[in-house]
Amino acid sequence: MTRKLFGTDGIRGRANQEPMTATTALNVAMAAARLFRRGDYRHRVVIGKDTRLSGYLIEPALTAGFIAEGMDVILLGPLPTPAVSMLTRSLRADLGVMISASHNPYEDNGIKLFGPDGFKLSDKFEKQIEKTMAKGNGKNSVPADELGRASRLDDAIGRYVEFIKSTSPNGLRLDGMKIVVDCANGAAYKVAPTILWELGAEVVPVAVQPDGRNINHKCGATHTRLMQEAVLLHQADVGLALDGDADRLIMADEKGQIIDGDQLMALIGQAWAKEGRLNKNTVVATVMSNLGLERYLKKKNIRLKRTVVGDRYVVEAMREGGFNVGGEQSGHIVLSDYGTTGDALIAALQILSVVRESKEPASKACRLFMPLPQILTNVKADGGVLKSKKVQDAIARAEKRLNGKGRLLIRKSGTEPLVRVMAEGDEAKLIQTLVNDIARAIKTEAA
Prior knowledge:
Layout: E1 6-7, E2 10-14, H1 22-36, E3 43-49, H2 55-68, E4 71-78, H3 81-90, E5 95-99, E6 108-114, H4 123-135, E7 150-152, H5 156-166, E8 178-182, H6 191-198, E9 202-206, H7 225-234, E10 238-242, E11 249-252, E12 258-259, H8 261-274, E13 282-286, H9 291-299, E14 303-307, H10 311-321, E15 325-327, E16 333-335, H11 344-358, H12 362-365, E17 374-380, H13 389-402, E18 406-412, E19 418-425, H14 428-446
Parallel strand pairs: 3-4, 3-5, 4-7, 8-9, 8-10, 13-14, 13-15
Antiparallel strand pairs: 1-2, 2-6, 5-6, 10-11, 11-12, 15-16, 17-19, 18-19
Helix pairs in contact: 1-2, 1-4, 5-6, 8-11, 13-14
């Protein structure tokens, strides 16, 4: 059975349209509750969300579904995705749910599910949920006296703030540092500035006035210009840009130049290897990470293990191999010594610690290698177009022209109706030509 609802990062779609309707959210909750109701005790689920307007639609629907199946619901309010993961474990919950579409615009929303161990549910469990939904809910539901209850965890923000501060290395203090933090008008709009201020930094918060419709709008990790300009305007030491649910981090140095996830992984991997903390001397990344990262780590005798795209698959590879540093070029950084999923704020504290200890500006401390020219373009098309002969021929021609001196990656997006075309190599003009040729073939076939 293939998954129909779940993509690479839970369920995602346009709010109030299938699959992101109140009805589907209700049914997902009921099906998940049936799978995770495993003993004769009061079961509980924690639910967090970002700042999207449609969270007011999805949250009560999920709550009703869990209550109908006898699970108590603990509502966290707006909090980062990794906070939901952490609190699922801390509160000994049977399930955790995050309502968010991450970096997508406010019109979209999503549902991410975590097991009692705080890890995102595997493909296996997602298939079981869909199978249970297909059988139909509402049958054999709990009797009225076994219905669940809903309550709100008033100190959820404080718990997460203290947890993040506890991960700061070597008693990190940020006194004397000026830090711009762009919270994308999203889930971390309260916690991120608070954490940095309590650690001593002078904080310049931007995009911290969510109105339900401005999450990720011209701000955050996918639109870094606001953060970069603020760094220059305020003469800050560093800039941090989070996405809507704060599991992704992109940085800027004091010159306003971007430091992406590949550089962050290289920095943490090298620092941890030097301290003897890097498990099996390996960093886990996806096929999207730049070849320059792989070459740099190799020089440092650090292995790079690649996975398919999606931070969930990075985490699975880390668990299977016993690795403790992984992530994505897009800024998901997973440090399993501290958490079970990407956490922008944990990663930020690790990077800031390295910058402080180096006594160098971020432009020197955080830029460890020169990335190879890499071009990525998104084409609006169904994934089925990749099977066409015309597209396959264009890909074959591109591979031949690369002649082993670079990489091609053409794939269907797991979260949007797009085909992503990526190429990298030593010659920028050739890479651009190859991407253009393949994208043109896809557009022609999709028309």
